[in-house]
Amino acid sequence: MEQLYFTATHEWVKFLDEKTAQIGISDFAQHALGDIVYVNLPDVGDNVGSTTRFGDVESVKAVSDLISPVSGNVTETNDVLLDSPEKLNSDPMNTWIMKVTGDFDKKGLLTPEEYAVLIAQAK
User: Fold this and answer.
1) How many helices (H) and strands (E) does the chain have?
2) Largest CA distance in the chain
3) Model pTM score
């Protein structure tokens, strides 16, 4: 069932099932940010809205907001990132930031193919 989508703000979302999603940042995002030194995670129990800020990442270049691709309730955060934020640089597509449960609307999300076109246009 696992489905992968992206956002124009360079987050990814993997739908693990109909009600559960993992969210992270794309390889393009981590490359643009440079060395990530800190991740500000949401709290478990927080409600997040689609296209709203849920945290931020700090790199040697800048602080960038993390924008949720879906609306729902935060059920888990990847606390490993608190001590090892560089995991977002070394393996961004397999390093999730938060898990969310909810009734998801996939409208506005990009398929991997659509995201590849977006990235190509950005270069």
Assistant:
1) 4, 9
2) 38
3) 0.95
CA distance 117 to 123: 10
Q: What is the pLDDT of residues 2-46, one digit of tens each?
A: 799 999 999 999 999 999 999 999 999 999 999 999 999 999 999
Domains and CATH numbers, the chain: 3-122 (2.40.50.100)
The single residue listed with the structure tokens 């990009």 is 110
Question: What is the sign, positive or negative, of the torsion defined by CA atoms of 55, 61, 120, 116?
Answer: negative
DSSP three-state, residue 103:
coil
Residue bearing tokens 């506005």: 108
CA end-to-end span of the chain? 32
